[in-house]
Amino acid sequence: MTAGEHFSDGLGEGSVFDIGRSGALVLDAVRRGGSVARSDLTERTPLSQQSVHRLAEDLLEKGFLRLEAPKIAGRGKPSPRLALEPQGACGIGIAIDTEEVRVAVTNITGDILHLATLNVDPNDPERVREETADCVSEIIAGLGLDLRRIAGVGISMQGYRRKPGLAFVPPPKIAAWRDRDVAEIFDGAFAFPMMAENNATLGAEAENWVGAGRRFDNFAYLSINLGFGGGVVINGAPYLGHHMNAAEISSIYTPEEQERRPALRTLIAMLREEGRDIGSVTALKQRYDPSWPEIDRWIERVTPALDQMLRAMTGILDPAAIVFGGEAPRDLRVRLARAASPRTVDEINLPFPGPELLISEIETDPNVLGAALLPIRKRLFSATPGFQA
User: Which residue, among 264, 287, 263, 327, has the nearest Cα to 95 in the 3D structure?
Assistant: First the structure.
């Protein structure tokens, strides 16, 4: 089982998610457009007008789209507008981080319907399986979710892959997950399709759904957490790469440079050296004080490595934007972006065009939102390019 496989939902034949590749193209065109006149869909897809009309009717009947009032512009009868039906589908996300395990439910438009933090050691895979299975059952019952419209369960894991699949090499704090197939650990825990992905890629997916992706089809994402990771969105979908480790950005640093990258573990260490009772990312977020002098010292320390990464992303990917995201407090991400100097000049001193530097506006932890969106992406938008196995 890999992140790119197509899954059945185990709920019998005739699943509502069986919309086909052409249906996925229409649905994604509406998602990216927000509210789209039906007559405009032929320009947004490679499909004929007759096919678009038939597919739109099918998606309306299945409850993934809804009709909105047409906008009157000029003469002639205005075309009905189509938008995603928020309750058409939902996804369940589980984020396994170094400090805690969170469970979230989102609808098809990316609204968080429920978010919970579990009282479980994230470094105990079998216990995490038991607790999340119980939690998911309680959430489904509590929200009264329609089982037929649950796309599946997405799991956010930290770390990289040694080979394509669902086994990761996570940070030492959750070493019990190392090289263990996530699908095997959670086998039988849920009555829905299960899939997993790297946390930074899922942060990029969340940003793609409800943030920068609304403006840009191509952007890079910085996941500033205890470590420092990244994600890439190309042509409107996250890109994984051949080994499924695309944007594993910390791998470009030497061991000496690792200590000067913008990872929160070094900021936490600096704060503790000054006697501040900050021992985790959670504590940092809860007690963050922008007046701490250690913050400016840390930013000065990590900015050269940050600039190195921004220049590399700009030169290799040429993204429209680079988003500062992750679990770092917003003020810290704003100050990092202001301190950065990613743009360079060419040999005749002309400025080299570069991306916009944006601050993610996602209020909840982005990786758990991305995890909940992952099965929705896979079940309904699998015809879109980029998020491949």
Answer: 327
**Contact in structure between 255 and 294 (CB atoms under 8 Å):** no
Residues 187 and 106 in one domain: yes
On whether both 235 and 333 belong to a single domain, the answer is yes
268 in the same domain as 243: yes
105 lies in the same domain as 67: no
**Measuring CA to CA, which residue among 125, 142, 141 is closest to residue 189?**
125
On whether the CB atoms of residues 222 and 215 are closer than 8 A, the answer is no
Q: What is the share, in percent, of the chain residues with pLDDT greater than 70? A: 92
Q: What is the per-residue pLDDT across 244-287, written as a single tens digit (0 to 9) for each?
A: 999 999 999 999 999 999 999 999 999 999 999 999 999 999 99
Give 41's contacts (C-beta < 8 A, 6+ positions apart): 26, 29, 30, 47, 52, 56, 82
Half-sphere exposure of 80 (CA within 13 A, CB side): 10
SS3 161: coil
> Is the CB of residue 365 less than 8 Å from the CB of residue 117?
no
Domain membership flag for residue 8? no
- Compute how many other C-beta atoms are within 10 angstroms of the C-beta atom of residue 95: 27
| Residues 149 and 34 placed together within one structural domain of the fold | no
**Whether residue 275 sits in one domain with residue 264:** yes
CATH of the domain at 44: 1.10.10.10
**DSSP run (H or E) holding 247:** none
In a domain, 9, yes or no: no
User: pLDDT averaged over consecutive 10-residue blocks of the chain (389 residues)?
Assistant: 40 73 94 89 91 94 92 67 96 96 97 96 98 97 97 97 95 96 96 96 96 94 95 94 94 92 97 95 95 98 96 93 96 97 76 91 92 96 55
